[in-house]
Every structure is written in C-alpha cells, then in structure tokens.
Amino acid sequence: MEGVSYQRFPKVKIRELKDDYLKFELRETDASMANALRRVMLAEVPTIAIDLVEIEGNSSVLNDEFLAHRLGLIPLTSDRAMVMRFSRDCDACDGDGQCEFCSVEFHLHVRCDSDQTLDVTSHDLVSSDPSVVPVDVQRADSVGYDTSEQRGIIIVKLRRGQELRLRAIARKGIGKDHAKWSPAATVTFMYEPEIHINEDMMETLSLEEKREWIESSPTKVFGLDPNTQQVIVIDAEAYTYDDEVIKKADSMGKSGLVEIYAKEDSFIFTVESTGAIKASQLFINAIEVLKQKLDAVRLSEDTEEADDQFGELGAHMRGG
Amino acid sequence: MNAPDRYERFVVPEGTKKVSYERDTKIINAASFTIEREDHTVGNILRMQLHKDPNVLFAGYKLPHPLQYKILVRVHTTSQSSPMQAYNQAINDLDKELNHLKRVFEGEMTKHPREY
Ligand SMILES: [Zn+2]
User: Fold this and answer.
1) Contact at 8 Å (CB) between A156 and A67?
2) Which of A40, A72, A155, B62 is the most exposed place for a label (fewest CB within 10 A)?
3) How far is CA A286 from CA A105, A178, A307, in A?
4) How many whole angstroms from A48 Cα to the centroid of ligand 1?
5) A137-189: pLDDT as tens digits
6) Cα of A89 to ligand 1 centre, how many Å?
7) What value of ipTM does the predicted structure carry?
8) Is the Cβ–Cβ distance between B93 and A5 less than 8 Å?
9) Domain boundaries, chain A
10) Which residues are found with C-beta within 5 Å of the ion, ligand 1?
C-alpha cells in the first residue's frame, strides 16, 4: 500500500502584513496549488453574515427586502466562524432559532426625531455576542475622513418621524453560497517574471533608442541608470506580460534584445480581506479548509475493500 | 419559487456517496473516480499531484456540466501501481504539503513585524 512520496515543500516569504492586507511570495509549488488556495480564500473560507431579517417596523424610504440585502452585506467579525456550526447541520436547534452554536442575534431600533436626516449605520446593530460585531471601518481606514462624523456602514437614512425596528439572525456561511459570506475583497496571484536583457545588443542602441524602447512598456518596468546610461530593470513585477517591449525590439530590428520568462513555480500573492477575519488568518483558514476538502474525498474503506477482491482477481488475470 | 436550494451546490445529498470508484472494464489499471460536490479546486490539484507519480500513465479530471455538481477523475497507472494507490498517495502528499505550508507561513508571521 505504501508508495514513495512525491510531496513538495513550498517556501513562503511575507512581504507586507497588515490586518486587512497581505502580500507574500509562494515558491516551489505549482499553479494548481496556488489557484486552489486562491479559490478557497474567495469562496470557501467561512464567515458570519446576517441571513435572516425580521422587520418589526419600517417607515424608511427603503423597502424591507432592500434593507435585508444591505444588512447581509455588512461584514461581521468572524474569528469564531471556523469553530461554529452551519445552521443546516446544527442539531441543537431547528436552524432558525437563537442557538449559540450556529447563530448570532442582532437588534436594531432607530427613530429620527430631529429635522436633520439621521444615518442608520452598522454601529446601530446591537449584537448578542460581543465577538461577532460589525467590522469597524474607521479603524481600518481613518486617513482623510473626519472620524467623528463618518461612523460605520450606512444602512439607510431617516427623516423626521421615520423609524426602523428589526431583529436579524447572522449565520455561518461560505462565499460559494452567497458572496456576502466571502471574507476576501480580492485575492490575486501572479507568476514572478524573470527578465534577461541582452547587454551586448542593448549597447548597440543609441541613448534616444533606449529611451524609446523603455517608453514602449505600458508599465514602468525598465529605466536608465543615470550614471552609466545603461538600461536596467527597475521593477520586474510591474510587467504585465503584455509583450510590448518584445514587439518594440522586433520592430527596431533588435529581436532577442530582451527575454522574459514566467517562473512557473514562483507566485506573488496579494490578499485583501473585508475585515471579517485578518488577511493572514484568511490564508491559514484556506489551508485548513483545503485540507478538510481533501480529507473528504478520501476513499471510504468499504470502497477499498470491495476493490481488493477485484484486485486479486485482476492479479490472476495478469498472471501475477 | 421552484429554484433549487443554493446549498445543493456543495452539500452532498443524503444517501449519496462522496466518492465512488469505477474500474475500467477494458484496460487494466485504469479507473475513474466520481467526486460529488467538488469542482476545479480539488480536481486540478489532484490531477497535477497524480502527474508527479511516475507510475501514473494518465491522470485527468473533468467537470461534465456546470449544473452537475460533480467531477470525474480518471487515472491510468502502470502495473507497478494501481489507480487507487496513486489516488490515495496523491491525497496524502497534498495533505502533507499543506501541513508544511501552514508551518512555514506561521513561521514567517512570527518573524514579520506588524506594520501600521
Ligand atoms: Zn443551532
């Protein structure tokens, strides 16, 4: 039964680490693994989001279902999500009650009694669980905003006499079910480019030609060394695999001036979180979820046993 | 009104097996695995990992239809191995790779100062 292992040992180098932003290099694995991790981060890492809304009173300008949709899209802090149960397989409740294993209850009651329009924001949502609350937007991005005025995510605006009263149930879910459960704002990866300049050929270019060639790239990949007037790579990762510099070299009669390869085992990942979980935790959870998925696709023992008998038969047939 | 539940895309219905195995009747050491409620995420990493096994002569997967939530993985091996052995080995290797990845990522995190 034992085979030789063909396991890989990927390497990671973190470049930037913030609560809602992560940039890192992933090496010595292949695109299928990079892409599986990206797909899991987008659609299969669980978070908590409002899923059921009971409107008790709504005299605002937005209709009930519009509000329910907006409430669903508010990111909630979801560190608990990995250990929570999905409502559909929670046996402690019927899936629609207040059950601490699978749901969190919210209340909202706002009434406007002044002549000024009143903003109903995510801060007006009162949670039954202090660990599951609307994400604090101002802490994440307070630059350029008057922090005293801009609070939370606006749900609706009320004028004098209007009132909104509701009860909401938040549940665990995944982005595959509905995008409101996706913890990722964006997840991207790119192949690391490897750029080789043919220095001898480059020296046959005049300074003007060098400038013209550098300018042919839509992104700032190349530049001139101010001292030596040599063409240098300023930012290899700015290259978008657009081939413009290669076409330009060809049109100048300098084919082979530059060669650019995509290193097929090196990836640069960018992960941006909605704030529901930290970007670094998002990646760790994605690894965990992918492990669980793989575990679920293991063959069951009865399938293996049923085949073992066949296997012996097969061995006889092969004359073994 | 008669729309199917959204969770039907990823929850295996009761009474259905997650993975079923079918041996090829004509070719020895060839088989296909039908995996319910999985897609390219699992299909592609399995296929690529199977390709690393020199005893695997063929490994491929397909998502037959976007509204049929299952994938088919077909494996053909030499007589030194079997589709089942290769399949199990691929899952074990992927699992170990992910364990390693988690370890190195967490190691990197402790090295990295929090930026603000
Ligand atoms: Zn429950």
Assistant:
1) yes
2) B62
3) 27, 17, 33
4) 14
5) 765 454 555 555 567 999 999 999 999 999 999 999 999 999 999 999 999 99
6) 8
7) 0.96
8) yes
9) 48-181
10) A 90, 92-93, 99, 101-102
